[in-house]
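Page 37, continued from 36.
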């Protein structure tokens, strides 16, 4: 059954398999929530209300991510992950008590703290236990379980909106989160914390991490990728709902795209183990660039939105699909590069930057998205959000090319220097 976790010459440790399954359940729950909340507060100013509710979540995750990463370096990964998942389950139950926008906004911010507690320690656990030559594949499995969870979550959320309604849907999601916490507590043994001669303060730990050249060059690109992900997850479902696309249809579309893209995450991680991290990262950024440019300038070649639903055109969907398959290449390669470049004793602090980037990117996406909605109106906002995304990915392409070229030049310089000795 678990043969898919095997790599050539490597085996995935049992507790990492449990971590991936638990992560999938956790992200499935998170992925369903925005659709459920969208239906919960549906009505006038629905898009504006969703933007208001969504903003505190990434802000809280951004503010606490590095703290939980550093804390896991000192106390162990498992207790932090279990506590964060349990907190998330409790918060989702509390959603059912009131549909007031400001009440939901407060709870969603606390929910972000739970999310922050689950991400950095989980990635650090993988870095602790994965062989350096197999790290890209393992990061690919983590990213696959995360991404596929979000996508399947959209499917689950879409069906729950149509079949059970939001309140019962929240209860079902809380049960999923509880199952995830129980799995982690019961099936993952607490690891032995590595002793260190000294511990630095939070900012000192982050300063130490940012001394690594690869982390400095990669981090702004990661912020942009996270921002684009935040735009898609936050606004695409509610935009489609406003266009009278049913929750079930949204779920099916997300599932089709997500399964195809997510299945390649371990593959791209493995490719980065073989050919190098940076070329795979560059391919991923360029693929995302191609998707956004096509959606911005050539959308009619791929699909049309009609009164009967969405009509797809094969001639445009083929190149869009090919680029979509490469869109997942960046994250597993980047995660592996971060682990490759950092000291084992501060994996938690390093991986805290990943969670920080997710939170910061989503905060920027949702904060600026809220500003765009207020300034342009709900009718014109989707187009302006797409222009915003195009500008961001253009900057990411430039930064990625600088990273790629400078790495080649640096390697050649180091090789020439070594030959002269």
């Amino acid at each position: 059954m678990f043969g898919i976790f095997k790599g050539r010459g490597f085996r995935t440790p049992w507790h990492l398999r449990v971590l991936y399954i638990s992560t999938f359940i956790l992200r499935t729950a998170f992925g369903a929530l925005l659709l459920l909340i969208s239906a919960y507060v549906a009505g006038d100013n629905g898009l504006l209300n969703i933007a208001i509710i969504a903003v505190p979540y990434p802000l809280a995750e951004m503010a606490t991510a590095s703290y939980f990463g550093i804390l896991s370096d000192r106390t162990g990964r498992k207790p932090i992950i279990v506590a964060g998942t349990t907190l998330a389950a409790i918060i989702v139950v509390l959603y059912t008590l009131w549909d007031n926008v400001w009440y939901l906004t407060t709870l969603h911010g606390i929910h972000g703290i739970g999310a922050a507690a689950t991400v950095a320690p989980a990635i650090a656990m993988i870095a602790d236990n994965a062989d350096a030559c197999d790290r890209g594949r393992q990061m690919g499995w983590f990213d696959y379980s995360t991404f596929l969870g979000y996508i399947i979550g959209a499917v689950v959320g879409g069906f729950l909106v149509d079949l059970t309604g939001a309140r019962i849907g929240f209860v079902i999601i809380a049960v999923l989160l509880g199952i995830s916490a129980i799995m982690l507590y019961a099936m993952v043994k607490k690891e032995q914390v590595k002793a260190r001669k000294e511990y630095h303060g939070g900012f000192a730990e982050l300063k130490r991490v940012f001394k690594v050249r690869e982390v400095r060059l990669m981090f702004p690109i990661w912020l942009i990728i996270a921002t684009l992900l935040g735009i898609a997850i936050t606004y695409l479902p509610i935009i489609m709902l406003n266009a009278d696309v049913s929750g079930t249809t949204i779920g099916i579309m997300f599932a089709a795209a997500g399964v195809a893209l997510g299945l390649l995450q371990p593959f791209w991680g493995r490719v980065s183990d073989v050919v190098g991290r940076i070329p795979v990262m560059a391919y991923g950024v360029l693929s995302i660039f191609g998707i956004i440019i096509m959606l911005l300038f050539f959308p009619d070649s791929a699909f049309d939105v009609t009164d009967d639903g969405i009509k797809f055109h094969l001639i445009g969907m083929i190149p869009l699909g090919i680029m979509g398959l490469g869109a997942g290449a960046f994250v597993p390669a980047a995660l592996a590069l971060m682990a490759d470049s950092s000291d084992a004793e501060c994996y938690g602090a390093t991986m805290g930057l990943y969670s920080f980037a997710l939170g910061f990117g989503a905060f920027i996406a949702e904060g600026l998205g809220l500003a765009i909605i207020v300034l342009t109106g709900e009718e014109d906002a989707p187009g302006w959000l797409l222009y915003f995304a195009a500008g961001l990915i253009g900057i990411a392409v430039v930064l990625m090319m600088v990273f790629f070229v400078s790495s080649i030049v640096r390697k050649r310089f180091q090789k020439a220097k070594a030959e002269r000795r």
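The mean pLDDT is 77. Flag for discussion at group meeting. Strands lie at 303-306, 309-312.
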